[in-house]
Design brief:
By secondary structure, this protein is α/β, with parallel strands linked by helices. The protein is 39% helix and 23% strand. It has a seven-stranded mixed beta sheet with strand order 14-15-16-13-12-18-19, sandwiched between helices. It has a six-stranded mixed beta sheet with strand order 9-8-7-10-11-22, with helices on both faces. Helix 14 (410-417) links the parallel strand 18 and strand 19. Helix 4 packs parallel to helix 5. The longest helix has 20 residues, at 39-58.
């Protein structure tokens, strides 16, 4: 793969030395090199974004909408190229990469239809009160490696619509598709409005502590989120943090066992388990546990695994070496603790970060595989007998991102779901998200909101005019 990789700063695509390697996780081969942003380039980009803010924030929202729609059209025009880049750098099957690219198009078009509210009233003394939402300034948007384009668009679309300028940083593990989008967007926005910089481990902390940045929108682990929050504290930056999850799925005894087990298999192992809202703890009623476990484990054993470009592949590799080693260590610890595997549990040799889907049979609630977020292709099945018991166990977590309830009795499922201490509850489904609906975490799963009007307002602050 021959690529010209250029970051976008102040409207210019910069020809810089490419030093950071980007690997194909299916082969461990270097497929490209990207520039490592310097502190001086970041400072210059922040200055350019600050200079562009006044003009962009005063640009009519109708024009800002049109620019987002134009970006969506440009991405759609190059969808196949972007999908192949995603598969090569991220590892997922090509069909899922295509779905991510087209999902970004849908998100951009949907966000472009939103409006910022204005409230007006006159009090008893005849004084006029008017409150509008105004943009914050320069936004640092920091996207992770599991869904590089989706989670970038979740940030840049509402930030730009609200009138902010943006500096987007992709993960150094998956910068290629994002930098290609920057190339495609270079002529769609005024200079300094949308900037895309890539870099190594130093770039993120530089951005989150930079005095010229007004807000940080970050998706990643809870541990890194704490560091982002600490770095932003001295300048009291606005924050949106979408962090870790350890989502519980509760399966009641009245379900169609085979159908539900197969759906939850994808709920757990989509993108090889590298999904913040994956079903990571699956609680199954005693009455159906054995049958459910048999069907679920059979699906895990039969799932085709291989490079994402290979026809018929369902599961690709873990995305990067550090995460691969973490999942391997968790599997080893699960073996060492004496927990039984119904499927998987062994890691093959050879090139690529491949780990077959692993299913653990009813480990204790204090087991690492239950308490920790694995963020990889391993999941525990857990028995329960009473609703109060399973709700208590599901809520016994530092995380509160999402959860799901599976039952043929929709009213019962909703009643159980209402008791879960999470931001999103799915009934007989999982992973469904919509640009018009807010997505937020509780506990240590995050601060702030993405998507919906609530997510748009995260990139603004109220300004009240009196008189």
């Amino acid at each position: 793969m021959t690529l010209t990789i250029r970051p976008l700063s102040d409207g210019h695509l910069l020809d810089l030395p490419a030093t950071l390697p980007v690997l194909d996780p299916a082969t461990e081969e270097v497929i490209a090199r990207v520039p490592d942003c310097t502190r001086e380039l970041l400072d210059a980009t922040v200055q350019a974004a600050q200079a562009a803010f006044d003009g962009w924030s005063r640009t009519p929202i109708e024009h800002r909408r049109a620019r987002l729609e134009a970006l969506g059209a440009r991405i759609k025009e190059h969808a196949e190229e972007l999908a192949l880049l995603l598969t090569r750098e991220q590892g997922r099957p090509l069909a899922l990469a295509r779905a991510e690219v087209l999902g970004c198009v849908h998100w951009l078009r949907s966000v472009a239809k939103m409006s910022l509210p204005v409230t007006e009233r006159t009090d008893q003394a005849g004084v006029n009160w008017s409150t509008r939402r105004v943009p914050l300034g320069v936004v640092a948007a920091i996207a992770p490696w599991n869904f590089p384009l989706t989670l970038a668009v979740w940030k840049l679309a509402p930030a730009l619509l609200a009138g902010n300028t943006v500096i987007l940083k992709p993960s150094p593990f998956t910068p290629l598709a994002t930098l290609r989008v920057a190339e495609l967007a270079a002529d769609l926005f005024p200079a300094g409005v949308l900037n895309v910089l890539c870099g190594g481990d130093a770039l993120g902390p530089w951005m989150t502590s930079h005095a010229g940045i007004a807000k940080v929108a970050f998706t990643g682990s809870t541990a890194t989120g704490r560091r982002v929050m600490a770095a932003a504290a001295p300048t009291l930056k606005h924050l949106t943090l979408e962090l870790g999850g350890n989502d519980a799925a509760i399966v009641m005894p009245d379900v169609d066992v085979t159908k539900t087990a197969r759906k939850l298999f994808m709920g757990a192992f989509l993108n090889s388990g590298q999904v913040c809202i994956a079903a990571k703890r699956i609680y199954v009623h005693d009455a159906i546990y054995d049958t459910f476990a048999q069907v679920f484990a059979a699906a895990a054993k039969a799932a085709p695994m291989g490079p994402g470009t290979q026809e018929g592949v369902l599961l690709g590799p873990v995305q990067n070496r550090p995460q691969y080693e973490r999942v391997k260590e968790l599997i080893a610890a699960t073996h060492a603790a004496g927990h039984r595997f119904l499927a998987g549990g062994e890691v093959p040799g050879g090139p690529g970060y491949f780990i077959p889907p692993a299913v653990v049979d009813n480990p204790p609630d204090d087991a690492r595989i239950v308490v920790e977020e694995p963020f990889g292709p391993i999941v525990p099945l857990l028995r329960f007998s009473e609703v109060d018991e399973v709700v208590r166990r599901a809520n016994d977590s530092e995380f509160g991102l999402g959860g799901s309830v599976w039952s043929d009795d929709a009213a019962q499922a909703r009643a159980i779901g209402a008791r879960l201490e999470v931001g999103t509850v799915w009934i007989n489904s999982v992973h469904l998200l919509d640009p018009q609906s807010p997505f937020a975490g509780r506990k240590q799963s995050g601060i702030g909101v993405e998507n919906g009007i609530e997510g748009l307002l995260e990139f603004t602050t109220p300004q009240t005019m009196v008189g």
